[in-house]
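TASK: fixed-backbone design
INPUT:
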């Protein structure tokens, strides 16, 4: 059932393309989590007027997760040859 939710069909030039968007939905969920974490760090920095090394390390880790997600997205893009 989950597969059907994540697949959309498109018709173009007599061809029907079925595209699985599950990786995009997963990425959007993970980006939402990362955004929430960054907002918490920003709130702490703004309320204390102090930047801790732990905050910087956490931000670096979150940025690495974003890069990994982006690399994963690119690798899952379908190659359509014409």
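OUTPUT:
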């Amino acid at each position: 059932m989950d597969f059907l939710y994540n697949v959309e069909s498109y018709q173009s030039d007599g061809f029907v393309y079925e595209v699985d968007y599950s990786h995009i939905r997963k990425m959007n969920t993970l980006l939402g989590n990362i955004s929430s974490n960054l907002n918490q760090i920003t709130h702490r920095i703004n309320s204390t007027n102090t930047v801790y090394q732990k905050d910087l390390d956490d931000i670096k880790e979150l940025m690495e997760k974003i890069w990994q997600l982006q690399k994963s997205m690119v690798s899952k893009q379908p190659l359509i040859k014409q």
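COMMENT: The longest helix spans residues 22-48.
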